[in-house]
Design a protein that fits this description.
The structure holds 3 protein chains of 3 kinds. Chain A contains 12 helices and 7 strands. By secondary structure, chain A is α/β, with parallel strands linked by helices. In chain A, the strands form 2 sheets. Chain A has a 5-stranded parallel β-sheet with strand order 1-2-3-7-6, sandwiched between helices. The chains are: A alpha/beta, B alpha+beta, C alpha/beta. Chain B: It is an enzyme of class 2 (transferase).
Chain lengths: 323, 476, 336
């Protein structure tokens, strides 16, 4: 597998954008200005970017309540997202959806979702559409170790196999479904990929905190699916650096657990180490990317803060296409 | 230069709304490292430590230990390292805007009311309804017939479509609602009873404990309480009839000397109209006894300024006329004019003679309201200050000589009205109360009817409705 | 009488009833929290803080953390109830009724009827509902009308700590499936709670205010909003019969009709969209059975026919407010 220098920098930029976006939100949410529930993706950046870097705007993804990373990786406008999370009129979804319901169909992003397990069946449908269109497109369902226990996910996997559609089930196992551990909640000995295999599809496993592992495994998987091999699954072993939602007191964490995760499982740090060791990139270049991303996030935040709120008179619009 | 940030009350869990700063664990301007415990925050559920997420120092501590503040409130000014000038600190504090973190939707400001529909021009200057106006066929016809300008109407139908109800409303004059007001709250504990049963039990002083309910699962209902009121042995002294003592007794005319008084113009008018009435109108009379114990008890229980018995009668007549509209009429030649509301002329004795000011829309007014209106009308009647429209017209008359101790009498119809009710005083009398003989205050009512417009059955129905209302005065 | 908030009243009632009846079990997502983690059990005690301490007291057999599997949670409650237990299943957000709907709608609510009256299904499903937290379209809904519509389910909405205790006790002692709705914004409401055994009958509405001009029928969080409206209206001499339904199934129709027969004016306040809602249900009952008493068309104060939006400004516009309720009462009085 080969990657160009530009591709490497691009991957880093997307991961850094997710990271800084989420860390800024973690800070901003403390002020109380951002309403509602916000679930941060920080720690899982390599998963979203490692998957989406293989896709273009015509491939579909469906996301989860922890969807900011998927949105950014799939190319959603960062400023529009920030405005949406601030509940502004010019947000990506006009302030109606908020953090849990960001969508941008022009980017093939079919929507984040507040209902755990709701996405997988929709990905099967999108994959069915892709199959009928015969353009080699795929549909990806991002699910967590929580959603892997929903009946909807099981049904979707079986139906994808039965219909032989190009659906890909990406399970980001961050070891916590809300406040409960994967060791307890996933009966197959915390192994999610084997469930997919049991439904009759090929499944892969990769380190979701390692961009290169995720990216290269996905390449293999996509070759299989795009080559007509039917649906497939991948379980990404990853980490959630913040709580289930912002405000989660995280009493389920062990002593020193978070410090260890930040020290050992930080995908950005790993990325820098890998490209630095191999002399693939000048780290100063990545520093420049960091600075540019920081400026983007600064602008996105201040623009979102200053942006006008939605007009309450429009509360009942967009319920239907035609009335 | 140090970068300053607000340090605010954190939110833990989904529904924390405020917290208390239990203690600051670091001093102002003392540098700290990532992971240092900065402060202890108490909520109603837990006490939590807040750890430093990065190296830094507080250049200003604002909240004091013990302060309870909203989530998002400014607790301190955080620096990423260095010290800061007072001006920088002041600028951050001045620029800090605390977000509104309360549950939304709890604002008590009234939403803007829909624009009131202005009253339409009075007469059929119905502007044509332009094409494209969303309006139902019946509403269109009604607007054209009534001359209503629909352009001023905000339709209540889907997409602002104008309905017949909208046109009907626009065609009517504004009304001020006649208010009953609040009731004291009834006890919510005690036996299983419906809310209305509880209210009536207080009103009638009936103990719910003794009652067996006929509702589901033995629930005591309104009807059960009313039955208990019916069955109760009345205590005559508890509800005395109004004392007749104040009534002036006409002096016998002294023999020999006769004062000859010319009729005033008002007297002449009364004389002419009543003569005509008695000569032209085929009167017939419907009489009925009505137990008044509950009415008198209700009146004596009334808070504040007590309405008179007559005020209750006005209301009762108003409601009974709505039930039996055949009595709520005027007779004009070969036409009977039947009215949609009860405008009741009440006979008031003045020095100059009888006047009959009118309580309009009596059916829709509360008794308290009637009492106020009636007092004002009577006062102005006695002062000769009534305006013509206050004593002309009317769809029915009421004459009450109870105040004079009169037991029963018949009245002459006040044309063009179709009927008049004559009311005497309430006297203790025996009645047959479902087989038991009881002595309760009883009113004698006599209804004079114009047989040209009203039949005996109408009069009978009216008296039955009236009796029912007076015997169940909570309906008033 | 002890003073506590609704959250505490629910926790204490669950504990007291579990103590009394060992067939009661509690299950749901994170009702304990921390299963299979380094931090260990009791990490949260329910994200609404309504079940802390139960695990320590009654152990893992009776206080059960589940995977995120709402269909299985509710279905398991239905099955356990058929098999002699009294399960209390928690749906962290009432909106998740969508995931578990078959188990409620086609199963739990219909067993007794379908099986010829031979079965009992004494399951209690706790549904945390309501807007006000900017939780957007899938975490803010009040789905009680839907549950009310299903024959076989009882639908309960406490608004005071005393009622939370009384209604939950009644639910746990009764033999029918009960949908127990807890409003997010009401958990902190404090009030006196009777000591000892306290049961509140279903189908018995609470008169919150009494007055003769307008009847307001409502439930849940809208009761307190209506009280605020009443304060303004009372100041203008307008008397309101304010009825807190407490349970929408069974429904205290008598309290509603008795009041409307006296006032002649009805305002229904319902934190949901207007169509096929509690508001339309109550309005239709009154129109059908108290038509002759009505002096004005029934007024319905509801959200718009739209999902619940995220932004503060939009959510505020969506939810009925005291001001909108006050306006509706004045509209009813202005009808001519």
């Amino acid at each position: 597998m080969q990657m160009s220098r530009d591709e490497l920098i691009g991957a880093y930029r997307r991961m850094a954008t997710i990271r800084q976006f989420e860390m800024r939100l973690h800070d901003e949410i403390k002020s109380g200005e951002i309403a509602g529930f916000t679930h941060l993706y920080c720690g899982q950046e390599a998963a979203a970017v490692g998957v989406c870097d293989h896709l273009d705007d015509d491939d579909y993804i469906v996301s989860t309540h922890r969807g900011h990373g998927h949105c950014i990786a799939k190319g959603c406008d960062v400023k529009g997202m920030m405005k949406e999370i601030y509940g502004r009129r010019d947000g990506l979804c006009k302030g109606r959806g908020g953090s849990m319901h960001i969508a941008d169909l022009s980017k093939g992003m079919l929507g984040a979702n507040g209902i755990v397990g709701a996405g997988a069946p929709q990905a099967v449908g999108a994959a069915l559409s892709a199959k009928l269109d015969r353009k080699g497109k795929v549909a990806i369902a991002f699910s967590g170790d929580g959603a892997c226990n929903q009946g909807t996910t099981f049904e979707a996997m079986n139906m994808a196999v039965v219909l032989k559609v190009p659906a890909i089930f990406v399970f980001e196992n961050n070891h916590y479904s809300e406040h409960t551990g994967v060791d307890y909640a996933v009966g197959t000995n915390r192994d999610i990929a084997s469930r997919a295999e049991a439904f009759g599809m090929k499944a892969w496993r990769a380190n979701g905190c390692d961009y290169f592992d995720t990216y290269s495994t996905m390449r293999e998987l996509l070759d299989h699916v795009r080559g007509g091999g039917g649906p497939a699954a991948i379980e990404l072993d990853t980490e959630r650096f913040y709580g289930h939602f912002e405000g989660d007191p995280q009493r389920y964490r062990g002593p020193g657990e978070l410090d260890r995760l930040w020290a050992e499982r930080d995908c950005l740090k790993n990325f820098r180490a890998r490209v630095g060791e191999g002399g693939l990139l000048d780290l100063a270049e990545l520093d420049r990317v960091d600075a540019e991303v920081s400026q983007l996030i600064d602008e996105a935040t201040s623009e979102a803060r200053a942006a006008p709120p939605p007009d309450p008179a429009h509360v009942a619009e967009d319920v239907y296409v035609e009335y | 230069m140090a970068k300053l940030k607000p340090f605010t009350m954190p939110k833990w869990g989904i529904e924390m709304s405020e917290g208390t700063v239990a203690e600051w664990m670091v001093a102002e301007n003392a540098p700290f490292t990532k992971g240092t415990v900065l402060t202890l925050i108490e909520t109603d559920k837990i006490t939590n430590e807040v750890e430093a997420e990065a190296d830094g120092r507080f250049v200003k501590l604002i909240a004091k230990p013990g302060d309870t503040v909203q989530v998002g409130a400014l607790l301190a000014v955080l620096s990423d390292g260095g010290e800061a000038s007072q001006a920088e600190i002041d600028a951050l504090i001045a620029g800090f805007v605390q977000a509104d973190t309360s549950f939304t939707g709890d604002d008590a400001t009234p939403a803007p009311a829909p624009a009131p529909t202005p009253p339409p021009p009075p007469v059929p200057a119905a502007p044509p309804i332009p094409d494209g106006v969303a309006i139902s066929p019946a509403a269109r016809a009604q607007a054209q017939a009534a001359g209503v300008d629909v352009s001023a109407i905000h339709g209540s139908g889907r997409g602002g479509r104008i309905t017949a109800q909208d046109v009907d409303q626009a065609a009517r004059p504004d009304t001020a609602p006649k208010l009953v007001g609040s009731f004291p709250s009834s006890p919510s504990d005690g036996p299983y009873a419906s809310p209305m049963a509880r209210r009536l039990s207080v009103l009638h002083d009936v103990a719910l404990d003794g009652l067996s309910g006929t509702g589901p699962k033995g629930r005591i209902r309104k009807a059960d309480v009313l039955a208990a009121v019916d069955a109760r042995t009345p205590v005559p002294s508890a509800s005395p009839a109004p004392a007749p003592s104040a009534a002036p007794v006409p002096a016998p005319v002294a023999s020999g000397d006769v004062d000859v008084l010319p009729m005033s113009s008002m007297r002449r008018t009364i004389a002419r109209r009543l003569t005509e009435a008695k000569q032209i109108i085929p009167h017939f009379y419907v009489r009925r006894r009505v137990r008044a114990d509950r009415l008198l008890a209700l009146r004596s229980a009334a808070q504040g300024k007590r309405p008179s018995v007559n005020d209750y009668l006005v209301k009762a007549c108003g409601l009974a006329l709505m039930e039996v509209p055949a009595v709520n009429v005027q007779v004009h030649g070969h036409e009977i004019h039947r009215f949609g509301r009860a405008d009741i002329a009440v006979a008031v004795a003045t020095e100059k003679g009888l006047v009959t000011p009118i309580v309009t829309g009596a059916e829709g007014r509360s008794v308290a309201d009637i009492s106020v209106v009636m007092a004002a009308l009577a006062q102005r009647a006695r002062a000769g200050q009534l305006k013509a429209e206050e004593f002309t017209g009317g769809s029915f008359s009421l004459s009450n000589l109870g105040g004079f101790g009169v037991e029963q009498f018949d009245a002459i119809i006040n044309p063009p009205q179709g009927a008049i009710l004559a009311v005497g005083t309430a006297r203790p009398e025996p009645i047959d109360d479902d087989g038991a003989i009881r002595i309760v205050p009883v009113l004698h009512l006599s209804l004079s009817c114009d047989h040209r417009a009203i039949d005996g059955a109408d009069g009978g129905r009216f008296m039955a409705a009236l009796a029912n209302l007076l015997e169940h005065p909570e309906l008033l | 009488m002890a003073v506590m908030n609704i959250r505490e009243a629910i926790t204490r009632t669950l504990a007291a009833e579990m103590e009394r009846d060992e067939s009661i079990i509690v299950l749901g997502e994170d009702v304990v929290g921390g299963a299979g983690t380094a931090g260990g059990q009791e990490a949260i005690g329910g994200i609404w803080g309504t079940t802390p301490g139960l695990f320590a007291k009654f152990g893992p057999d009776r206080v059960i953390d589940t995977p995120i599997s709402e269909s299985a949670i509710v279905g398991a409650a239905a099955g356990a109830a058929l098999a002699g237990k009294r399960p209390v299943a928690e749906l962290m957000f009432a909106d998740f009724v969508g995931v578990s709907l078959d188990q409620l709608w086609n199963q739990m609510g219909k067993f007794r009827y379908m099986f010829g009256g031979k079965t009992r299904c004494p399951a209690v499903v706790r549904l945390i509902y309501g807007a006000g937290m900017n939780a957007a379209a899938q975490h803010s809904q009040s789905v009680y009308a839907m549950m009310t519509a299903m024959p076989g389910l009882k639908t309960v909405l406490p608004t005071t700590p005393a009622d939370a205790k009384g209604l939950l006790t009644e639910a746990l002692r009764g033999d029918d499936p009960v949908m127990f709705f807890e409003h997010k914004a009401l958990y902190g409401v404090k009030g006196e709670v009777p000591d000892g055994d306290h049961r509140q009958r279903f189908g018995e509405a609470r008169m919150v205010r009494e007055g003769g001009d307008v009847t307001i029928v409502t439930c849940g969080r809208m009761v307190s909003f209506s009280e605020k409206a009443c304060d303004k209206l009372n100041a203008d001499g307008i008397g309101v019969d304010l009825i807190d339904l407490r349970t929408t199934s069974p429904l205290d129709e008598e309290a509603i009709l008795d009041s409307v027969e006296q006032t002649g004016r009805l305002v229904v306040v319902d934190e949901s969209p207007p169509r096929c809602s509690l508001a339309s249900d109550i309005a239709s009952i009154v129109a059908a059975k108290a038509f002759s008493s009505l002096k004005a068309p029934p007024q319905m104060v509801t959200g718009p026919h739209a999902p619940i939006p995220f932004a503060r400004e939009l959510e505020r516009a969506w939810v009925p407010s005291p001001g909108k309720i006050e306006n509706a009462v004045r509209q009813a009085l202005a009808y001519r």
